[in-house]
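Final report, results section. Input specification for complex C-07:
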Amino acid sequence: MFFNVKKLKAKFIALLIFVFVLSGCDYEVSPWSLDADCSDEVSVARNIERLKAYEQKVGPRAEYQVAIISDPQQYPGSFEKLIKHVNTLPEVDFILLTGDLADTGTKAEYEWVCKVMEKAKQPIFAVIGNHDALAFGKDLWARVFGPEDYSFTYQNSKFIAYNDNKYEFTNVPDRDWLAAEAAGDAERDYTMVFSHIPPWDFDLTLSQDLKDLGVDLGVHGHEHSFDYWQITGVQLPHYVVTSTKKKGFGLLTINPAGYTLENCTTSSCTVAQLRNRNASL
Amino acid sequence: MAIGRAVVLIFSLFGAINVSAFDDVEDYLDLQSGSLMGLAHASYGARLDSHNLMIGIGYVPELSYHKEMLLYSLRYRYENPTSWDIKGMAFTPFNFGVGVLIGDHPDLFVQLPERYPDGYYTPSAFRIIFNYQAALQVTPQLQAYFDMSIMDVGFIGYIREPDFYHDNYDYIGLEGIMNWGFGARYVF
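Structure output:
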């Protein structure tokens, strides 16, 4: 009987590849499923626990650092490189991720970002961005991370995360909640807020309101470039970190005497320069 | 929804055109599950030589991990003539396609809602889906297939940052972007 060894081998290899690839895929009914495969390690609650446990272990710190990363949307590879770099910085005690983790709010995008976040050695806290809320992103966010507004304390300072995505949500930010969270500021070293979007140009009164609550610094993303400004007369600094696509991150160094902000890449950092701006456009 | 009306119109046009009047064109009914197309997705298709055009509607019921919604599709598929015999049935392993998938749900939009500035987002209801199929001709009229698909953001991400997917997912990173499904088509 004649048979073509070459053809049989090609068919066998093709079948093998087919089976391997098939077994690696997921059966998905649509791009808009809600069951993102993210571990509890990325949730807000878990990271608050981790930070508390770390603080109990290290005790009072004369000085510590916070890494700030933003807008990793569409670039999980660059995000992973930044996280790996931040993992090598011994003074960084936790990471703030200021929104737009996904670009179109789909399950797959959340999963890619979770994959990276799970590699962070330090606790990592994410705040919701406008793109995260697209499609069924709000539901995904709640399932993966938990609340949109939350707070935690560390080294006698309070860090408050708030949702300010005005087009995607109604009645945000929740100013009553912010006021309640910021209360007791006099007893703390610092009260710092972080959100995805800096105070909108058409609502710069938020900066004044935050200042009146005793907030010392706002940290944000959204604009995909570094910026550091305060409104003349209000003098509440707002620091904006660039996007992950541009391979940059912010470094906040805090000690009781003050804080400094640096614009960083994986190779160098430069001190951020605070500029004054007017309250009106 | 305007998209629903458009789909009905297109289906009607397909029905109005007597496909069988074109001798070389074969038309068929396709039923698929998974691979991003819905729990069930029914399509009307027409084939000329190796080229296929399909229009379909899919459904996902309310599930613990999914909201109830409809899905509409317009897809093209190329069927490579390579065919292997498996116990008297033709196995065609090289079929590739691309299509538009539209989700129908109040949280998704085709047209940007008025509250947004112009150009703020691209339509959240639209996805481009690339797919591969391997098909088995069970009977002269009935074909069964496995389908593997990649969504637009996965395709772009994989090309843009292949190392991320290679390092974090199996099968040269394809596990991170591919989905599978299955279906059958009946030729009239």
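The mean pLDDT of chain B is 90. Residues 35 and 181 of chain B are 4 Å apart (CA to CA). This concludes the modelling results for the funded period.
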